[in-house]
Specification:
With 180 residues, the chain is an alpha+beta fold. It has a domain of 122 residues: Jelly Rolls, CATH 2.60.120. Helices cover 17% and strands 31% of the residues. A five-stranded antiparallel β-sheet has the order 1-2-6-4-5, with no helix packed on it. A hairpin with a 2-residue loop joins strand 4 and strand 5. The chain is elongated.
């Protein structure tokens, strides 16, 4: 019986050593078995847009709007990214009764980037500008606020508050101008 136990013990130790050696060889093969294809290159970039230096386009107490009034304000967007980008301009945090009355038009030169009510100028509705913004390029834009003449007196003492925003995505490998 003693002989049988020592044979089992010897066989068990041999099996553990053999399995440990197999595990070591398999692990070595997994970590060091590689295929090399030379000439691949990946580069990441940074998307960084300056929108009017962070300054508001229109100040809270700058104008007292009335029916028939139109105000145009200049602002800029500059590409401080490491890639050329597509961009879109939109309003966020829109509040106030004038959001459904004031007509807003955003111009990039002669091109209209947006035209419609302030309440509709959302991130989801804003389309990308037709032209790309090159690295370091600065574009002078214009925003027009128009209070339609036919508006009623019900809108007296109403206001509009908003954040003017811009999104940008790299132009490279993005022919469909996808922002998400």
């Amino acid at each position: 019986m003693k002989r049988n136990t020592s044979k089992r013990l010897a066989f068990g130790i041999f099996a553990v050593i053999l399995l440990s050696a197999a595990l070591c060889i398999t692990t070595y093969a997994l970590f060091y078995a590689t295929v090399t294809v030379e000439g691949n290159y990946f580069k990441t970039g940074i998307i960084n847009i300056d929108l009017n230096g962070g300054e508001p386009v229109i100040e809270e107490s700058e104008y007292l709007f009335e029916p028939g009034m139109t105000v145009e304000k200049d602002f800029y967007i500059q590409n401080k990214s490491t890639w050329a980008v597509y961009y879109r301009i939109y309003l966020d945090n829109v509040e106030g009764g004038l959001a459904d009355i004031l007509e807003i038009t955003v111009f990039d030169g002669d091109n209209i980037l947006y035209q419609g009510k302030a309440s509709d100028m959302t991130r989801q509705n804003a389309g990308a500008a037709d032209d790309i913004l090159l690295i370091g390029e600065r574009r002078e834009l214009k925003i027009r606020f128009h209070y339609p003449k036919g508006s009623t007196n019900l809108s007296q003492n109403w206001e509009l508050k908003f954040d003017l925003c811009a999104d940008a995505v790299q132009e490279k490998n993005n022919p469909d101008k996808e922002f998400d």
